[in-house]
Amino acid sequence: ELKKLLASHTGLHPDDQKLIFKDKERDSKAFLDMTGVKDKAKMVLVEDPQSLERRYLEMRKNAKMEKAAKAIAEISLEVDKLAGQ
Are residues 63 and 85 in the same domain? Predict the structure, then answer.
């Protein structure tokens, strides 16, 4: 939940965020009070470069898939036109 809230303020996707408390990354799924974070405690938010890279590669892969699907659809339409002649 905290990462989602921070995403709206920072523009960083929650998956691209790391929350650091006492020099250790905190588990995203754990409640803050269960990990030892108290009220008014200071945490550090950093961008996770590995996650960012994975997201970039996934976007490139999706773009290639969309381009291939569009090309197949165009070829299929052309084949249908030729078959109708």
Answer: yes
Residue-wise pLDDT tens digits, 5-64: 788 888 888 888 888 888 877 776 767 776 777 788 788 888 887 877 888 888 999 999
C-alpha–C-alpha distance, residues 48 and 18, integer Å: 6
Q: For the whole model, what pTM was predicted? A: 0.49
Host domain of residue 40: 1-47
Tokens of 16: 């691209």
The domain tally of the chain equals 2
Tokens 């999706």 correspond to 62
For 34-67, give the DSSP string.
Answer: GGTPPTT---EEEE-HHHHHHHHHHHHHHHHHHH
Contact 47, 7 (CB under 8 A): no
